[in-house]
């Protein structure tokens, strides 16, 4: 039996194999072929036995080496679909792995018996296959057993001494690196799922906010116009009919707005909202001082449209104001009324809270204040670099 001391290049190859073993299962075939290729370092001891006349040892070692290579390749073929479908859940133990590991252990024992210490590092392959095809805990147990075997066997059998002791710890290095890789994959998947959940929550909040703003404004104006139409029935039938026609139009627009919001197609423009505001304020008998649409800044100013919609809705619904003023510049919009002013819960309602979220998402700032003469002042300002 040959007890040739393994060359240092053997240890280097084992370490490189450990690094390659960390690759993703998508490259499992590549890893398997590399593993088999690195088994070729045993060809030297086999040839040496043949030249020294130990033909039986050389023949059996050759057969065992080919069998070992076949088992390794076969393991990557049989278990190629055992990658975790859910990175956050450890896969169940595939009990078919244990016979494969037993066959590899038998091959290692036979090679060590025939070739001596040169074949002892092949035990690392047992650990590598376990790391790829077993959950982290079970593969860790296998790796510890392999490390103990590689440390204790040379102590019990002096003829097998000669393998650098640090080679015995390669399985633990491979297991630790693989474990860290899976942990990173798990954290990445968790972050991806959290991001997806946040996107769902954000979309749900957007729909809820838009539906509230659309229906809150439309239903408020419909209520005001319906009350006005009832008062006009005995006074001015033609104007009452006009108001009821507006009620029908607003109801249809609200329905269409809800449909567009659910589909993510809702568009709001400042010019359109100015027309709606004029109609709503007139129906509520509130004098309006609105900017001329021809003098508005360029662009659709969607954010300002939402601000005007919600602010006017609050003026009509809660303020009991007699006058409302709207001032629009390229970077700001102010809605001022002379009504009851801001109560202690101002800004906490779903409408203004949603409007605050909307302005924050657009990079703007929103402020609520009380003018010198009383009432309420809603101001939204957009940074110059974000202005249309």
Model description:
By secondary structure, the protein is α+β, with helices and mostly antiparallel strands. The radius of gyration is 39 Å and the shape is rod-shaped. Residues 1-26 have low confidence and may be disordered. Helix content is 62%, strand content 7%. Strands 1-2-3-5-4 form a five-stranded mixed beta sheet, with helices on one face.
Major β-sheet profile: 5 strands, mixed
User: Can you give the helix content as a percent range?
Assistant: 55-70%
Q: In sequence order, what are the helices and strands, one letter per element?
A: HHHHHHHHHHEHEEHEE
Output the structural class.
Answer: alpha+beta
What is the tally of helical segments? 12
Q: Give a count of the beta strands, DSSP E runs of length 2 or more.
A: 5
Distance between the termini: 86 Å
What percentage of amino acids are in beta strands?
Answer: 5-15%
Overall average pLDDT: 78
Low-pLDDT runs of 5+ residues are 1-26
Spatial extent as radius of gyration:
39 Å
Taking strands numbered 1, 2, ... along the chain, how are they ordered across the largest sheet? 1-2-3-5-4
Shape: rod-shaped
Short description:
By secondary structure, the protein is of the alpha+beta class. It has 12 helices and 5 strands. Helix 1 runs antiparallel to helix 2 and helix 6 runs antiparallel to helix 7.
């Amino acid at each position: 039996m040959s007890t040739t001391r393994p060359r240092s290049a053997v240890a280097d190859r084992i370490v490189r194999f450990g690094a390659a073993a960390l690759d993703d299962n998508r490259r499992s075939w590549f890893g398997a072929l590399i593993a088999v290729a690195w088994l070729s370092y045993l060809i030297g001891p086999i040839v040496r036995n043949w030249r020294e006349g130990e033909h039986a040892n050389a023949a059996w070692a050759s057969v065992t080496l080919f069998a070992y290579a076949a088992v390794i390749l076969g393991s990557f073929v049989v278990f190629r679909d055992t990658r975790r479908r859910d990175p956050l859940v450890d896969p169940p133990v595939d009990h078919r792995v244990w016979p494969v590991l037993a066959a590899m252990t038998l091959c290692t024992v036979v090679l060590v018996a025939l070739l001596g210490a040169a074949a002892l590092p092949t035990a690392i392959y047992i650990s590598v296959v376990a790391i790829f095809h077993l959950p982290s805990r079970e593969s860790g147990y296998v790796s510890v057993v392999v490390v103990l075997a590689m440390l204790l066997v040379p102590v019990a059998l002096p003829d097998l001494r000669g393998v650098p002791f640090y080679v015995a710890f390669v399985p633990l290095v491979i297991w630790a690196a693989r474990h860290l890789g899976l942990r990173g994959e798990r954290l990445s998947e968790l972050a991806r799922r959290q991001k997806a959940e946040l996107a769902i929550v954000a979309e749900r909040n957007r729909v809820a906010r838009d539906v509230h703003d659309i229906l809150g404004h439309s239903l408020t104006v419909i209520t005001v116009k319906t009350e006005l139409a009832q008062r006009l029935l005995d006074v001015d039938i033609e104007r009452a009919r006009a108001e009821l026609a507006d009620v029908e139009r607003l109801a249809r627009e609200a329905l269409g707005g809800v449909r567009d919001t659910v589909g993510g197609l809702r568009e709001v423009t400042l010019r359109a909202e100015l027309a709606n505001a004029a109609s709503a304020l007139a129906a509520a008998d509130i004098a309006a001082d609105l900017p001329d649409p021809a003098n508005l800044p360029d662009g659709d100013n969607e954010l300002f449209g939402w601000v005007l919609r919600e602010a006017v809705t609050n003026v009509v619904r809660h303020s009991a104001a007699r006058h409302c003023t709207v001032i629009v510049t390229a970077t700001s919009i102010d809605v001022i009324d002379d009504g009851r002013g801001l109560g202690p819960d101002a800004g906490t309602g779903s409408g203004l809270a949603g409007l605050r979220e909307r302005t924050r998402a657009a990079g703007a700032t929103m402020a609520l204040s009380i003018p010198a003469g009383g009432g309420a002042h809603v101001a939204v300002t957009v940074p110059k670099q974000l202005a249309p």
